[in-house]
Amino acid sequence: MMNAKSVEHRSLRRLILRNISPAQMLLYALANFAGLAILLTAFQFYRDVNAPSDNTGDYLTLSKEVSFISAGGGGFTDEEIADIAAQPWVESVDGFTSSQFQVSAAIEMGGKAMSTYLFFESIPDRYYDIQPSLWQFDPADPNPVIPVVIPRDYLALYNFGFAASRGLPQVSEGVIGAIPVKIRMQGNGHEDVYDAVIAGFSSRINTVAVPQDFLDWANRRYAPTSHSRPERLIVHVSSPGDSAIDEYVESHNLQTSGDNEATGRMASFFKIATGLVMGVGGMISLLAFVILLLSVYLLINRNRAMIRSLMSLGYAPDTVGRYYYVAVGLLNVVTAMLAWVAMFAARSSWMQSLASMEIGGASLALSVVITVVFAVSMTLIDVISIRSKLVGIWYR
């Protein structure tokens, strides 16, 4: 059997809540849901697109500008490399190690022999966008083989340029990897010929790359007295389209590989568009909040006499307002949860496309935090506003 206090509270709840308009609450819920869903979706999309990945846009190759005719050999000093590494948009930076000796390559294909002078460069393995299976060289091996990674564009130039003009066969990546290549290296009184194999094709590294330990050994053997600073740097950047990159490159007379200027413009446009969409979502949520407060204020004013009578009977403002607090709190929590679910559902539509570009997406943790903070903040502001209104009635 219910006690008298429970019956009293139940009657009070019915008395207060019966005058709350469901239509007004539904209007607020829909507006708040739409605004928060737009804001969360735009925010998460921006984070997913800019998440760290193996995409080539996360890496830049820096070199110094050449003024008319230059003798070269300047390279980057340790101080210049340290300054670049200290920039906020840099994750890591390393120099290209270059061959300091003569290199030539010979290949026979389709009954025709070709030879050309070459150069080798190497970088730490973590910068490659591929992981060749044959990426090692042992000079003590009786038949050592030099693994080489070349840019994928080089194969396209051969197939659609050189091969077509010389009557040579076009080849695929799988076929060219099986073609034997002879590498001749000369310097410091040594001249040796080694077998080489094309171990892979890179979309990131625009050079003829060999393992770092091989090139260090080869430089010691064929050019022990030649030491030079790195002429090029590979930089892993945290935000490829950051305008600060272009500003730094221009102010220090540097050059970057690829069309970084276009990437920067696209990134700036994307940031502006994302900001506008998030602004629209925030504005809709703000308007929904104003609608709710106005609705509650009008409800309280319409029931001022009843509320004053309840307070005259000994009910404190918080006792009367508790039912309003619970109503708006539940409304905010439910709409925030629905908005997060809508964002998560929308996210599944773009994650597959990002995965095809080797972008794994960002964590959802920050979106969850924003959703919780939004629901709690809106509820606190609602409670404080409603309570101040009720206290004003109590003291008058």
Features:
11 helices; alpha+beta; 396 residues; four-stranded antiparallel beta sheet
What does this structure look like?
- With 396 residues, the protein is an alpha+beta fold.
- The protein has a domain at 4-54 and 265-395.
- Helix content is 54%, strand content 17%.
- The chain has 11 helices and 11 strands.
- It has helices at 4-17, 22-49, 78-85, 152-166, 173-176, 212-222, 243-251, 260-302, 304-312, 317-356, 365-395, and strands spanning 59-64, 90-95, 97-98, 102-109, 112-118, 121-122, 145-151, 181-187, 190-202, 232-237, 254-256.
- The chain has a 5-stranded mixed β-sheet. It has a 4-stranded antiparallel β-sheet with strand order 2-10-1-11, with helices on one face.
- A hairpin with a 2-residue loop joins strand 8 and strand 9.
- Helix 2 (22-49) runs antiparallel to helix 8.
- It is elongated.
- The two termini are 39 Å apart.
- The mean pLDDT is 78.
Largest sheet: 5 strands, mixed
Beta strands, count: 11
Q: Indicate the radius of gyration in whole angstroms.
A: 34 Å
Percent strand: 15-25%
Distance between the amino and carboxyl termini = 39 Å
**Average pLDDT across residues?**
78
Number of helices: 11
- Helical proportion? 40-55%
User: For the largest beta sheet, what order do the strands appear in spatially?
Assistant: 5-4-8-9-7
What order do the SSEs take from the amino end to the carboxyl end, as H and E?
HHEHEEEEEEHHEEHEHEHHHH
